[in-house]
Amino acid sequence: PADIAVGATVSQALSALAAALPPGAEVLVPEEEFTSNLFPWAVSARLRTVPLERLADAVTPRTRVVAFSLVQSADGRPAPTADILTAARDHDALTVTDATQACGWLPVQATRFDILTCAAYKWLMAPRGATYTYLSPRARRHMRPIAANWYAGSDPGGSYYGPPLRLASDARAFDLSPAWFSQVGAAVTLELLGRIGVPAVHDHDTALAARFCAGLDLAPTGGAIATAPADAAALRRLAEAGVRTAVRAGRIRASFHLYTTEDDVDRAVAALTGHDPT
């Protein structure tokens, strides 16, 4: 599609806008944001951070870009997206969202944002090295193709050698030459997810997360990610039970997807509570 660019990483995708911002431009970002959507702005702009829940209220006429994740990496919290979009629109700020922790289990409408980018190795289950980015025509007017290459040419096969610069007139001008093996793997997983349907994946994943929370007497998150207190004993029991989790921001982060079963959830709960599920 004319508004989609292919790349390798989120930070690379966002740098084409970050590098083109005027000196002193303010970019507003949640203070707990994953750094792929924070460091590019810190290099090229005047970064201002606030807690996620205050992001919409913090947008001012000086704000050029509001950048945030749809779902937070550390704990799975969803962003107050509608409020952020309204505040950004009221102040004519560009909206940039990292959907890496959302696309694949959460229904997402990319055209609500000026830029939406997603690394496919998480919930899209692809190999590392595949990233897809929606670039609205409005966003592209503010961007520079700083990684211009033959694959971004108006005719890639005719862009191997020599001047002049002849980039595509749409979002493909921001393409990177693909990591071919990553894209081969991504083609399979994207076809699978499309066949199953994101709504069905959403129902499966969130039901498992709710089962996990209920087993630990935690408030349900409504999402596909849940966290629990982390201590050495709990982490040891999880490892012994063959349960793989991550520790983020000092808590155990558990994520639930197509390959997760109710038995997996019960095994994780038993390991964390120290109770034998049998």
TrEMBL record:
The keyword Nucleotide-binding does not apply. SUPFAM superfamilies: PLP-dependent transferases (SSF53383). It holds the Pfam family Aminotran_5. Coiled coil: none annotated. Residues 13-225 form the Aminotransferase class V domain. GO terms for molecular function: transaminase activity. InterPro entries: Aminotrans_V_dom, PyrdxlP-dep_Trfase, PyrdxlP-dep_Trfase_major, PyrdxlP-dep_Trfase_small. Keywords: Aminotransferase, Transferase. Signal peptide: none annotated. PANTHER family: CYSTEINE DESULFURASE, PYRIDOXAL PHOSPHATE (PLP)-DEPENDENT ASPARTATE AMINOTRANSFERASE SUPERFAMILY. This is Aminotransferase.
